[in-house]
């Protein structure tokens, strides 16, 4: 889907594509958007330099030291698989930031950054923040299209998506090279749905992301398209649309390769005090909503 298409008719055409993609697959790819290729390239380079630091340096800003889930997560620090209890831990390391707010409310607090004097780290923070702001802006554009796709006012989600106190997470990942003897279960990350409202994923050209086609139970790869964003609906938005839009299972099985894979997921979970309940037009006439109302923050804590 080409996002920066301009006039009203083009916007409407985009909104129809969004509706079709989210009612059926829950995933789409965006090209022609507002984040420059130059910034994407600088960002991917910056995260590669960070992950190349010695483990002991990265562990100094371990997420385990943060009361508000920010910082570094070593390989094996997460297990996302929701389909298989015996699955191995995820084969990736990560680094997360969230909006910088005073400690207090759930997930609020300071970020943790690597020391600027470490090799390659002098502009890491500024590049990461520049990227965060750019992809946050893109998520607001996407929420506008989603509003149009649901026949709502274009600005319906503006306040929700732009709230400076909102719950956002920008987590970058490094998937180490996979030796020829690795099995599917020890590569990448397990099958899961995303939790919140909307995810924007930047992936490099290595590949490995797969999406489940539920009706046939088959997995389909999401081919890397240079400069694009994979944009999917999370559980909160599925609930908000009364299950009309789908939060779809996905996973990463890194291809057998001597290459490192880098990606970054930006999650916009929106305004923490917003009460989410079935959107106008999503409950068929004469039916009851499938889910009761829930506050965004309570959905996060669940
Ligand atoms: O790295 C990827 O391609 C996918 C990451 C992902 O699904 C997630 O972080 O929720
Ligand atoms: Fe995900």
UniProtKB/TrEMBL annotation:
PANTHER family reported for this sequence: 2-OXOGLUTARATE (2OG) AND FE(II)-DEPENDENT OXYGENASE SUPERFAMILY PROTEIN-RELATED
Domain Fe2OG dioxygenase: 166-270
Superkingdom of the organism of origin: Eukaryota
Residue ranges the record marks as coiled coil: none
One Pfam family here: DIOX_N
One GO MF term attached to the UniProt entry: metal ion binding
Protein's name according to its UniProt entry: Putative gibberellin 20 oxidase
Entry similarity comment: Belongs to the iron/ascorbate-dependent oxidoreductase family.
Entry keyword Ribosomal protein: no
Stored InterPro entries: DIOX_N, IPNS-like_FE2OG_OXY, IPNS-like_sf, Iron_ascorbate_oxido_reductase, Oxoglu/Fe-dep_dioxygenase_dom
GO BP, sorted A to Z: small molecule biosynthetic process
Keywords: Iron, Metal-binding, Oxidoreductase
């Amino acid at each position: 889907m080409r996002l920066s298409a301009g006039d009203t008719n083009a916007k409407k055409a985009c909104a129809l594509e969004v509706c079709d993609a989210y009612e059926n697959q829950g995933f789409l790819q965006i090209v022609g958007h507002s984040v420059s290729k130059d910034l994407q390239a600088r960002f991917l380079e910056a995260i590669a330099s960070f992950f190349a630091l010695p483990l002991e340096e990265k562990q100094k800003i371990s997420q385990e030291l943060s009361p508000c889930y920010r910082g570094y997560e070593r390989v094996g620090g997460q297990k996302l698989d929701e389909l298989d209890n015996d699955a191995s831990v995820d084969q990736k390391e990560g680094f997360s930031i969230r909006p910088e707010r005073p400690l207090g409310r759930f997930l609020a607090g300071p970020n943790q950054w690597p020391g600027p004097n470490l090799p390659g780290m002098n502009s890491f923070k500024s590049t990461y923040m520049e990227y965060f702001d750019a992809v946050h802006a893109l998520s607001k554009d996407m929420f506008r299209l989603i509003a149009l796709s649901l026949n709502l006012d274009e600005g319906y989600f503006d306040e929700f998506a732009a709230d400076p106190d909102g719950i956002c997470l920008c987590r970058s990942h490094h998937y180490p090279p996979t030796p020829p003897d690795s099995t599917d279960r020890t590569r990448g990350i397990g099958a899961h749905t995303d939790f919140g409202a909307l995810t924007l994923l930047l992936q490099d050209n290595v590949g490995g992301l797969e999406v489940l086609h539920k009706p046939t139970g088959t997995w389909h790869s999401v081919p890397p398209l240079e400069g694009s964003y994979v944009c999917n609906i999370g559980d909160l938005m599925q609930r908000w649309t009364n299950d009309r839009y789908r939060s779809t299972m996905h996973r990463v099985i890194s291809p057998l390769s001597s290459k490192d894979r880098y990606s970054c997921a930006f999650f916009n979970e929106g305004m923490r005090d917003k009460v989410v309940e079935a959107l106008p037009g999503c409950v068929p006439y004469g039916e009851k909503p499938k889910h009761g109302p829930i506050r965004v923050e309570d959905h996060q804590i669940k």
